[in-house]
Specification:
coiled coil, protease, 8 strands, PcsB_CC, alpha+beta
């Protein structure tokens, strides 16, 4: 009997040990599974953080593109107004030239009529014995000395009046010819300006189409990124639900055994941070003065053909490329002509390998050397672009790299 009691006690103890070990094994298995779920969840959350950062960049890029499109729209509107104004001036000049041509034709007819009159008078003199005979008849037909003197004066005045009248007509015709030439020269300049404006508008329309294409591409990428984020969020929700279920099961297993050590589940969040590296140019001084003075216009200006040549334009941030560079160098006491073709000739030509901060760099856009900016180093330049207004642009790759032909001018 005593031996049976000992055996029963041993069985009870063994059963307790077996129960504890079973619970411990079950708990360990659940915890391992939970660790796997937590690892998967950490990976998804890391992917989700990266995807959200990429999405934020895409949203920012879309906003920047839309801002550029708005600026191009504004620049197109202003330059189209300039075209309309120029065409109106051309129409006025053409009308003025037409009126002058009519006036010249009238004067020529008057001259021809007066010349014909003189020719007929000369022919009459010749038929009647020449002008001397006719004049003598007029003079000797006088009734007295006073009448004779009066007739001499009258004949002389008539001849002189004819000559003076013809000379006056010829002077008037000459003056009209000169004025017509001036109008024609102005008309030619206006037509050249119209051609240049139309070329600029075509160039800006190409820029607009390019920005629209980029916006569509980035919008598609944004939609794909949002879809991927939604999928990651769904996966994360599933894993979190699975993790919660595992935690409940672990707690239930641990509750079944008083001897089971209580384990606390700790979850850690991985935070990622990105540091932005900044680079700076080599030179300071005068170039930095230009950059500092230009800060007020970066992101706060509009490209307008012919802009930057009046205080009103400068106050409102309305520049074209050469107008901006002329204004910028004016801030350090260097006078430049407000024209790209003239600025090419304004300083010393240097090779692209030798260019440094502050050099003028030229690009072939709608015409040879049609755009100019100020080189800042590290493949960047400062200028007034049709799509952005005053901004820093990259000339080491992409659009501006394709249009840079190595034309560099040093003006300081």
């Amino acid at each position: 009997m005593k031996r049976a009691k000992v055996l029963i006690s041993a069985l009870i103890i063994a059963a307790g040990i077996f129960t504890y070990d079973s619970v411990a094994e079950a708990t360990e298995g659940l915890e391992n599974e939970r660790d796997e779920v937590q690892s998967e969840l950490d990976n998804i959350q890391s992917e989700l953080s990266g995807a959200e950062a990429e999405l934020a960049e895409l949203v920012s890029e879309v906003e920047a593109i839309e801002s550029e499109i708005e600026q191009i729209d504004e620049a197109l509107r202003l330059n189209e107004e300039n075209v309309e104004k120029t065409e109106a001036e051309i129409e006025e000049k053409e009308e003025a030239i037409e009126e002058m041509e009519d006036e010249i034709a009238r004067l020529e007819a008057d001259i021809e009529e007066r010349m014909e009159h003189l020719k007929n008078r000369a022919s009459a003199y010749q038929r009647e014995g020449g002008p001397t005979s006719s004049y003598m008849e007029v003079l000797f037909g006088a009734e007295g000395f006073a009448d004779f003197i009066s007739r001499v004066f009258t004949v002389t005045q008539i001849a002189q009046a004819d000559q003076d009248f013809i000379e006056q007509l010829e002077k008037s015709q000459q003056a009209l010819d000169e004025t017509k030439s001036e109008h024609e020269s102005e008309l030619e300049s206006l037509e050249e300006e119209r051609t240049e404006l139309q070329g600029m508008i075509e160039y800006m329309e190409d820029q607009y189409e390019e920005q629209e294409r980029l916006r569509q591409e980035v919008t598609v990428m944004q939609a794909e990124q949002e879809e991927m984020i939604a999928s990651l969020v769904s996966d994360a929700d599933d894993l979190e639900a699975r993790e919660a279920d595992l935690m409940n099961r672990i707690e239930e297993e641990q509750a079944r055994a008083e001897e089971a050590a209580q384990s606390a589940a700790a979850s850690t969040n991985n935070a990622t941070a990105s540091a932005a590296a900044s680079s700076s140019g080599g030179a300071s001084g005068t170039v930095d003065t230009i950059v500092d003075a230009s800060q007020q216009y970066i992101g706060n200006s509009t490209y307008v053909f012919g802009g930057g040549r009046s205080q009103s334009d400068i106050a409102n941030g309305r520049f074209d490329c050469s107008g901006f560079t002329a204004w910028a160098f004016g801030q350090i006491g260097i006078d430049l002509p407000a024209n790209t073709q003239a600025q090419v000739q304004s300083g010393q030509r240097v090779s692209a390998d030798e260019m440094q901060r502050g050099d003028l760099v030229f690009f072939d856009t709608y015409t040879s050397n049609g755009h100019v900016g100020i080189y800042l180093g590290n493949g960047q330049f400062l200028g007034s672009q049709s799509s952005t207004g005053v901004a820093v642009a990259d000339m080491s790759s992409g659009y501006w790299a394709e249009r840079f032909r190595g034309v560099v001018v040093r003006v300081m």
